[in-house]
């Protein structure tokens, strides 16, 4: 019988004890499901990246390798492949920036609650600005994209993932490259157009944050003309569009973002509660070798920039004394050489 490898990706499983609290993390390591899983776990790989912002979040860095994406491919932009927007070039997200003490901070777009009719009205207001720059805006529910309409005027940008910039000062995360000034000028025009737009006036009257800027993230992967879409890229598109479980050509890849949602909300207690829920629904079944984990599991524990891969075989190996302690598995990977 063929065994299909099953892998679980857990963004924000590795968190700073200064944020989550050392006691919370310690309690997480003693949960029965995690403790049982850890008794058979073997660390197979880890990335100890220690980089100041803008560092790509660990789960995106790991996904890039697993799904065979090129350096300028954005995992989030792969949603175009699932949205029927193949042929577009860049992922766009309407966002809300709020003023910090002396800088602008990116709010989590998931909390915008932007209605389709609001998105359509905002997009129609700014579409001519993009047309003038040889760019076509595609607004949709819920994702936006850009297409370059003049091969002689491509956008030459190096962008950073929205997922890493949420809750941060955006200065270090803004696009760079030859067309950075061109893009900043265009975004400034968008911001001025939206400042007094009726949609934002109505949103503020209802106590909702205004949509006051755009985040660009790209590029969308594009295979050679006539070539089929690789299975890994199809999986990337499905994950970026919200799927939680895909077959990616390497096996079954499952992703759970409940820990990440708590981290983005800045709620350590919600992170602890999400861990307890995972202990019941996932870690316990893995430890007990229940379906769909009867044949073992690979877990990817990701943090702000690094990640750790652990393998949980269906049965404990004979070198049991080499198993790491449950707490060791949740510690950030030791920093590598500079």
Question: Averaged pLDDT, please?
Answer: 90
Query: How does the overall form come out from the CA principal axes?
Result: globular
C-alpha Rg (nearest Å): 21 Å
Q: Could you give the distance between the termini? A: 46 Å
Low-confidence blocks of residues: none
- H/E element sequence: EHHHEHHEEEHEEHHHEHEEHHEEH
Taking strands numbered 1, 2, ... along the chain, how are they ordered across the largest sheet?
Answer: 2-12-11-1-10-9
Helix content: 25-40%
Derived from helix and strand composition plus strand pairing, the structural class reads alpha+beta
Largest sheet properties: 6 strands, mixed
Range of strand content: 15-25%
- Helical segment count: 13
Record field, number of beta strands:
12
Task: Draw up the topology in text.
Elements lengths: L5 E5 L6 H4 L1 H8 L2 H7 L3 E6 L10 H9 L12 H4 L7 E6 L1 E3 L4 E3 L9 H16 L3 E4 L5 E5 L13 H4 L14 H16 L2 H8 L7 E6 L12 H10 L4 E3 L4 E4 L2 H7 L3 H20 L9 E6 L4 E6 L13 H4 L9
Helix pairs in contact: 3-12, 6-8, 11-12
Explain the overall architecture.
This protein is of the alpha+beta class. The protein has 2 domains: 6-67 and 248-329, no CATH class; 75-218, no CATH class. Helix content is 35%, strand content 17%. The chain contains 13 helices and 12 strands. It has helices spanning 17-20, 22-29, 32-38, 58-66, 79-82, 116-131, 162-165, 180-195, 198-205, 231-240, 258-264, 268-287, 326-329; strands at residues 6-10, 42-47, 90-95, 97-99, 104-106, 135-138, 144-148, 213-218, 245-247, 252-255, 297-302, 307-312. α3 (32-38) packs across α12 and α6 packs across α8 (180-195). The protein is globular. It starts with 5 loop residues before the first strand and ends in a 9-residue tail after the last helix. 36% of the residues are buried.
